[in-house]
Specification:
alpha+beta; Elongation Factor Tu (Ef-tu), domain 3; 159 residues; elongated; 6 strands; 2 domains
């Protein structure tokens, strides 16, 4: 499995549903490209216009779904060919501090859960851990606590 946060580019046909949503089929397996996770938060460029979204799955296919309020509807019609570039958002596991990477790699369920979090939540956990620079023993405790809580489904750090 290759796991990188590099952008993936492709050309695809947009499908516009009756409710105004725009569906773009993703021609690669996100788990293979970026590692397995429950949800993929991505930033994208479609014909040079930026945005943010998550993938949805239908019949095992990864789909980029743009809601009617995404602002793309005026310039994308059903059947249009569009150029797409996708990249996972936020801090990716491979770019984190070595102690955090090590803890997440030791627990695949925690890593998958952490990677599935939205950027906002990942940054919150990292800020909480990094605020212990002068107390390394607390940092170790917080990393262990993050691994356990994220694995249990907690999105945010304890208050």
């Amino acid at each position: 499995m290759t796991s990188t946060s590099e952008p993936r580019t492709f050309r695809a046909t947009a499908k516009v549903e009756a409710n105004g949503r725009i569906i773009i089929a993703v021609p690669f397996d996100p788990a293979e490209a970026w590692g397995p996770r429950d949800r993929y938060h991505v930033s994208y460029m479609i014909d040079g216009r930026p945005g943010r979204s998550t993938f949805q799955r239908r019949d095992e296919a990864a789909l980029l779904v743009l809601g009617p309020k995404s602002g793309h509807r005026p310039w994308i019609s059903d059947g249009d060919e569009v150029d797409v570039s996708l990249q996972p958002e936020g801090p990716q596991t491979g770019a984190l501090a070595a102690d955090i990477v090590s803890a997440l790699h030791a627990d695949p369920a925690a890593r998958r859960a952490f990677d599935s979090l939205a950027t906002f939540y990942r940054k919150g956990w990292l800020t909480w851990i990094d605020s212990t620079k002068r107390r390394p023993e607390v940092r170790v405790e917080r990393i262990a606590q993050m691994v356990e809580l994220v694995k249990q489904g907690h999105k945010e750090r304890p208050r």
